[in-house]
Please model this.
Amino acid sequence: MRSVNVLSWSVADRPLFYAYLALLLWLPLPLGSNRVWAWSLMEVWILALAVIWLLQYLRGKADINRPFVRAWPVTACLLVTTVWVIVQTLPLPAGVLGLLSPQALDIHGTTQSYPSLSLDVYATRQSTLKTLCYLLLFCLTLLLINDKQRIKRLAQVIVLGGVFQASYGALMTLSGLEYGFFVEKESGVGVATGTFINRNHLAGYMEMCLAVGTGLLLAELSTRAATDWRDRARRLLATLLGSKARIRIALVVMVIGLVMTHSRMGNTAFFVSLTSVGAFYLFVIRRVTRGGMIFFVSLLLIDLLVVGNFFGVEKVAERLQETSLESESRDEVSRDTLAIVRDFPLTGTGAGSFYSTYPMYNSGEVAPAFYRHAHNDYLQFASEFGLPALAVLAFSVLASFWAAVSAQIARRDRLLQGMGFATTMGIVALLIHSAVDFNLQIPANAAMFVVLMALAWISRYSDSRTGSKEP
Model:
């Protein structure tokens, strides 16, 4: 890496950093950016940030850093995935297409359509840009979050976004106004959806924001015991009047928003991830004092029993009790999607093609006939990308998960430890939720998940003294 003055580097990319934070605040607002115009704006925004950073790098005003270098396995996996999606859109000779995907050759021969691995080339071309932008967002996060102050600011912005979505969703539900993003809600009436369309997607977003907020508050907790009553009083005042109180209130608001979604798996994923990762932090790492133990217990008991009961946790419990295979169609969709995977195991049907491919495999037990998503991210990625590409993506997530776990074990800096906890908890929560939903198909949630993956590497390899500019 070239030698770049730390101060001049920070000043040079400061506008980029704030534009990056503004992007994270914007993405969930327009229906989770799950409309063509919204994700197109996201793509232009990310591409512009990437081009400007590259120009600064070429002018010697920016440089790569240690987290970026150490995260090369994930960068390589995302790059390979992007290239693979491009390959899915290319016209192929009949011999090559028949070798790679005999089913695709038969379908294209019957319909006289574009001879590619993808059964919906237009949708796959759209997914190509999305996949490229997720790769660039991962890199931008590593490169722009280059010191502890920016790490903390990023966490605060994520929490701010979560508080807004939770507050807005709760306000719309309690007031009866029921508006989403400037339009009256057509679905999800009576439950919190924020500016998303689907309550489960707000729940997925809340899971990640709550994880970051929990990690941020954990970083604020003292790791040493109080020496006397004066020290205890001083700490109590700091807790009541300082940043810890604001973060704690933010967590309560976000829990209210999550509970009011009445999302079964959203609430389950949050509490399972909190208890499992919290237990790991408390009993494996053993660096939390009695105050830390009280914090985890309060987050589970006070929020769940007091706040949750007041704002409808019993509704979530009722939905869980009423859930059965007879009342759900997701198992039939999953079974049909497995048939797609069976016919296209190597190459998939093309990224983004599920909507147009599923009607051919609908067993007739599912209504309506058209499903935009499989309600299972794992099966949808397998059916669209193929099993080898799914393995590549899985490796990138697991590598980031291990970086987050390692940050909790190896780092001594409280903020970096806390962010390691946050990314571990956020990844676990969304991996659980993805088994029955499609959060990773929603651009705002997929982008936040990518940010968490990058934050795992930042928390593991950032320099706790001067930032992340180690050679």
In short: The chain is about 70% helix and 0% strand. The two ends are 7 Å apart (CA to CA). The longest helix spans residues 148-175.
